[in-house]
Amino acid sequence: MAAAPCGRGGGTLTLVLVALSAAFLTYNVLISFRSSLQPLPSSFPTATATATASPSRRFGAWRRAFHTAVTASGNAYNTWQCRVMYHWFKEARRAPGGGEMGGFTRVLHSGKPDEFVDEIPTFVADPLPDEKMGYIVLNRPWAFVQWLQKADIKEDYILMAEPDHIIVKPIPNLSRDGQAAAFHFFYIEPKKYENVLRKFFPEDKGAITKIDPIGNSPVIIEKESLGRIAPTWMNVSIAMKKDPDADKSFGWVLEMYAYAVASALHGVGNILHKDFMIQPPWDLEVGDAFIIHYTYGCYYDMTGKSTYGKIGEWIFDKRSYEDKPPPRNLPLPPNGVPQSVVTLVKMVNEATANIPNWDSYAAN
């Protein structure tokens, strides 16, 4: 499939964010969450950048079709994961039951195109300055704000996904009746951190239970709803990072809490799907899941016993490939290793066997 041309999402965006300084792109941000945010337009202006690769669909399916968007930084670590992810996205979309899977965009927040824009449909967004934020994941909400304003997105729904997601079977549109569909993260605990979260979700907004235990991914949501949420998500993320209590409490999942708060502030509820994805090695079987999320390392001895937290005799950990992609034909796990881990490695191997020029890419 030929990818659509790469575009650029730069330029001044007319966001009316809370108490924002006149020049947002200089990031002199002052934030107050008791004021309202102006939503992004529901009908988007003529795009200066778009790369969607949206296939034609029967009318009934297209009304519920969703566009898959994956944010990425453009480093080697993110890029090889995106190539594997996009391979399995295409396989799932071609399969029976993939009729609601629409277009795909890698939202690249490096500020410049890379060599894979002809392989993966790509929108180039401007990054936040690292020296200002010190937390690269904050680029994600900012990238989504730019993409939603500038890209010509045909579908009415968005699936927010991540590079380290492998789609194991076609995904239907799980959202219903104005509610988004999301995965329940056990480590997102709004009630536990109510005192901190009340700085961003004041009591007049309702019970703390209105904040769902979710992140922004995986989430299937109406495009119009995400257009309203994204600027707030951006604002809350920056404010949490600047707040010592929030930064200490939420750490590497700060931006996930920010999305959950932003969703609640805009009154967008979430249908929680425990089978939306699995996370090996803790989830032992793929079961009915749609996505494998390989955020955790998998460590085993040669008898198939887990050695998590220690260097194992057999390892699959994405962090082993931060500087260069994994080679083709990774060794399969020993007997006794959970089926979820075996499936993960087999799917990585199948993807790299079929992605053009993987060997030369991995050798660089």
TrEMBL record:
It is a single-pass membrane protein. The keyword Transmembrane helix applies. Its main location: membrane. One of its GO terms (molecular function) is glycosyltransferase activity. Keywords: Glycosyltransferase, Membrane, Transferase, Transmembrane, Transmembrane helix. Pfam families: HPAT (PF23452). It is found in: Membrane. GO terms for cellular component: membrane. Residues 66-359 form the Hydroxyproline O-arabinosyltransferase-like domain. The chain crosses the membrane at residues 12-33. This is Hydroxyproline O-arabinosyltransferase-like domain-containing protein. It comes from Miscanthus lutarioriparius.
